[in-house]
Predict the structure.
Amino acid sequence: MPRPPSFVRHILQSLCALLCVFVCHVPAAFAEKADRDKPINFQGDSLGGNTDTKISDLIGNVVITQGTLTIHADRIQFHQNPDNSVSATAIGNPVSFREKRDGSDDYYEGFAQRIVYDGTKRIVELFDRALLKRTGDELRSNYILYNAETNVYKAEGRPDSKPPSVGEAPLGSRVRGVFLPQPKDGKDAKDSKESKNAPQKSNDPVPLKPDTSLKPEAAK
């Protein structure tokens, strides 16, 4: 069989190289969406549930993990969605929630008295003394909604559900937060990176983005 002309071979080799680059980079960009392909691991002091509905109720020192997703609580009612993601309503003092961001090395974390997570939509809602953290940025309120799919958030001031602990300031109907300064272009950015001994990456985190189009759950 005759060999194809050299220019055809060159085009085919280039296409193969591009395909290899694409295949190698796609898993990294969508690694955290692949959490739903991982097993759902759970543990607690007691468990009750229904094998048909896949709804389970864990009580006592509860931990649920799926890939990079981790939830700690006193009590969690959770179920396995058709796409194998997990949805959960967690209660604790506080509940803690942690998951890795898509295409980045950083995590977002949430703390509240009650957390509701929709694994299919990747939306987490935090109720009562809520704290949302990501790479130094912090947002505090009695209600926070965060969409991990679009990286947008919504916070609302709501009355405190109970008096704050000793030494803890009440949140009340106020929203509070802090965003770290963004690196400047040029020499300042380089000096800032070097001072922290952190190499610059193309996937450096971007600020949280507010979006008023999100519809939160009605206050309970």
